[in-house]
Structures are given as structure tokens and as C-alpha cells.
Amino acid sequence: MGRHAPYDDPGTPDVRSPWRYLWWLVLAQRRRVLAGAWWGSLWMCGLVLPPYLISRAIEDGLRGGDRTALVWWCAALTVVVALLALIGVARHRTMTLVRTDAALRTAQLVVEHVTRLGGVVRRKLSAGDLTYLQNGDTTRIAHALTSTGPGVGAVVAYAVTAVLLVRISPVVAVVVLLGVPVLAVVTTPVLRRLHVVEAGYRQSQGELSSRAGDIVAGLKVLSGIGGKPAFEERFRAKSRDVLRDGYRVSVWLSWVQVLWGLPTLFLGVVTWIVARMAVSGAITVAEMVAVYLYVGTLIVPVSFFVEGADAIPRALVSARRVVDLLSLRPEERSGDGEPLEVKPGALTVLVSSDAAAAREAVERLPGQVVVADNDDYLFPGPVREAVSVGEHDDASVRRAIWAAAAGDVVEAMPDGLDSHLESQGRNVSGGQRQRLRLVRALLSDPEVLVLVEPTSALDAVTEAAVAERVKEARRGRTTVVVSSSPLWAGQADEALCLEGTR
After folding, report:
1. pTM for this prediction
2. In this predicted structure, what is the pLDDT of residue 86?
3. Which CATH number covers residue 456?
């Protein structure tokens, strides 16, 4: 298993449940997590020392009239505060690495698995769902791992503070020990409701993103058939639904913000109790100051408890989506018909009267091939960058342009290869888009290249040139073309009928 992202081997995740997946992320970097728990515990427990040192300075130095003791206790306080700052830096750095590792490891697992699945992902997940999974879900999962560092430290510091308080006043210790569970009971229902409405909001966002992508992709068709007003109204209606869901989330978020003030309220209650005890003589002034500072220090671990109670359920929801995706498997062959065998290093043409069935069959191919079809996305930017996969010199790019018979496409653009290509090539025709996609596929130069109807939008003369040139450019490498065109069949080393084949 690699130590730094991108990992040579990110590991085999445990996808039996969201909890098991989160635990696997912890075990994948166990040393770093243990270091985070150590620094977190040391830092949290160290926060208890300043109140103790201040109480001793008051008791021995001020009330006792011992200036030397006062100086020594103040010096010790200065040293402890400096050490706490250094420990805090180490804790934060370690936990940042823990969160980053979890996010990048999850992202790499998702990308690699999606690559292996191929077309299965298109049928199971929308583009919006996949985008949010890569961005929002990985962040939520990573944030939950904070509980392995400061979260553990908060538990340790809470126990240490309780022991110190028992020595001063058992009554105050009981109040503190019972106060945190009460806070948890109060916050849990609100956080649970927030997670429910957030889940609905995320689903609505994903549906709206997918609908927007569909509208943009088919904008010219919608304009031609006069369907823009209908789709505009549907989009507006869905946008209003998302807006209402967003308002609903905001209402519960405002209650969560109120909950963040509960630790301060808790501190106020304890302060009132110890102040009355000091007035009655049950505890000394120094002990009262110590209790106040101890409980003030407890705000930090209590805040981490509240944060963990919020972050972990969110992470479990996100981990469920990751686990569901990682549990997807490539579709198995039905067993009907003869298996398709393709000669290595040859140009094979698959002939089928059903283009959809041919595309479905191609999507079942293993992941170690490049499959190029007419739905592949063309990114906006200079033509050179839109068709280049990695670093290619002009000579390589122009050879691919020649093979795809796309020279006239580039020449017709104002700045040649430096001309701007809009998203999905909306500023070029369908046939020109098809050839630019073919240029990109050829530049990827894979051992096995599968082209699905690569010339369906071209005239016969251009199609014949493309078929001849692609065969020449791909000589010695395996190329599979799904097409019913006789021009491709005429160039094929082998032509196969897809009917009855799985």
C-alpha cells in the first residue's frame, strides 16, 4: 500500500457497511491516526494544566505572600503555554494529514472503480451524483476522522478534568459528568433531523444538475423542435423545489448554531454553582478560580463532542454512497451466444443493426481498453488542449488530425489549433465534433481502441478517407469499430456480425 497520494495501491476497502469503511480508512493509516490520538490527548490534557498552575500561583504566591513561589508558578505557566502551542501545531498537522489521506484515498478508489466499471456507471448513477460523491462526500468522510485525534483527546481530557474536580468538590464533579450527556441528549434530535433534510436537499441538487446537463447537451435540438419553453418551465419548477429544500435546511442549521452556544451556557451554570459554594465557604477562592478555569477548558472537548455528533452521522451517509458505488460490479455475460474473440493487432469491424445493443455490448468490455463513442464529453478550451491526452507535440497532434480527416476542421477555425472550442463542441457541426473526438481517441494511443459509430455523421467520401487512415495509423495495434457501414467493412482485417454475440 502506497504512503503518498496518488497511491500505487490504495488498498482493498471494506465495503460491508459504512462503519466498516470508515474503520478501514482508520486502519489504512493506523500509525498516523495513533499519532493524532497521542497529540490530541496530550494537547487536551495539557489544557488542564494552566488552570492548576494559576490556582497554585494564587494560593501559594498571592494568598501566601511568597513572591518566589509566585515567580516559579508563573514561569511554569509560561513554559506550559509555549509547549501547548507546539503540541497544538503537531496535532493540527497530523490531523490534516489524516483527513487528506482519507479524502484522497477515497477519491482514488472511486476513480479507479468507475474506470473499471465502464458503462455500468452511466446506468446506475447520474453525473450530478458522481460529481457530488467526488467533492462533497469525500470531504464529509475525511472530516469525520477528526474524531480519531481530538475526539479521543476530548474523552481523555474529560476524564482527567472530572478526577481533578472530584478532589475539589464531588457536587461540581457530578454536575460536570452529567452535563455532557444532557448536552448530547439535547443535540441529537436536532442533528438527526438536519441530516434527514440535508439528504433530501442533496438528492434534489443532484437531480437538478443532471437535468441542467441534459438541457445544455440537447439545446440545439430543443430549439429546433420548439421545446425550450416546456423544458424551461420544468427546470424552473425543479429549481423552486431545490430552493424550498434549501430553506428547510437553513431552518435546522440555525438551530444547530444555537446548539453551539450550549457549552457556554453549561459553563455559566457551573460558574454560578461554584460561586455560591465559594461564598458559603465550602471551597476557597483559589479552588473557585480553578473550577472556573477547568470548566472553561472543558468547553473545548465538549465542542469536539458536539462536532463529532454532527460529523459522524454525515460521514456515514456519505460512506453509504461510496460503499454502494464500490459494491457495483461489471455486468456478467448472460451466457447466450458465442463469446466474441478479436484478433490482436488487427482492425475488426462489428456489424449490428441495433446500435444500442452494440454500445451495450461494448460497455461490457474489460476496463483496460479505450472506448470512444459519440457521447464522450468535449471540454471547452483551445482545440489543441481539447483533443490532447497528456503531452503531445504538434507533429503527433497533426498526425492524429490527418488520420481523422480533421484537417479541414482545424483550418476552418480562425486560429487553427489555438482556436477556442466551446463545451461539447457547440461551435462546430456534428460531423466536425465526431472527427475531433476521433482525434482525441487516436492520440490516447491505447493497445486496444474501440470506436462506436465513429463516422455516422460524415459523408461517404470523408468516411472512406477516415476508415483508410485509421487503419494505417493503428497498424500493429488492436482496433475494434462498431459500424454497419460497408466502407469500414471494406478496410477491416476481420468483420464480425454482433447478432447473437454477448
Report:
1. 0.62
2. 93
3. 3.40.50.300
